[in-house]
């Protein structure tokens, strides 16, 4: 029983670390790309359609796309 509780605690800690890492990475990537993560826009702001996502259809490769942009 103690072993099961230990594994549960380890799994919960790992889940929290993954959640924090993903949220931080998404925020940094959105800031670099200039994209909005979603939800309600800040007061006084409007959302503009930037067209399709840059990686729609195929992932960018180093030979095709040197930076994340709308032209990839």
Features:
44% helix, mainly alpha, 0% strand, 72 residues, single chain
3D architecture notes:
It is a single chain. By secondary structure, the chain is an all-alpha fold. 44% of the residues lie in helices and 0% in strands. It contains 1 helix and no strands. The model is unreliable at 62-72 (pLDDT under 50).
- What profile does the largest beta sheet have? none
- The helix/strand series, from N terminus to C terminus, equals H
Shape: elongated
Which regions are unreliable across 5 or more consecutive residues at pLDDT < 50? 62-72
Query: Helical content, roughly?
Result: 40-55%
* Proportion in β-strands: under 5%
Count of DSSP E strands?
0
Radius of gyration of CA atoms, rounded to a whole number: 19 Å
**Chain-averaged pLDDT:** 75
Question: In brief, what are we looking at here?
Answer:
This protein is mostly helical. Helices cover 44% and strands 0% of the residues.
What are the SSEs and their pairings?
Blueprint: H1 2-33
């Amino acid at each position: 029983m103690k072993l099961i509780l230990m594994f549960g605690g380890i799994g919960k800690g790992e889940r929290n670390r993954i959640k924090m890492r993903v949220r931080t990475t998404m925020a940094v990537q959105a800031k670099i790309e200039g994209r909005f993560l979603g939800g309600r826009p800040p007061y006084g702001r409007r959302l503009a359609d930037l067209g399709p996502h840059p990686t729609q259809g195929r992932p960018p490769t180093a030979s095709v796309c040197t930076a994340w942009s709308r032209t990839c």
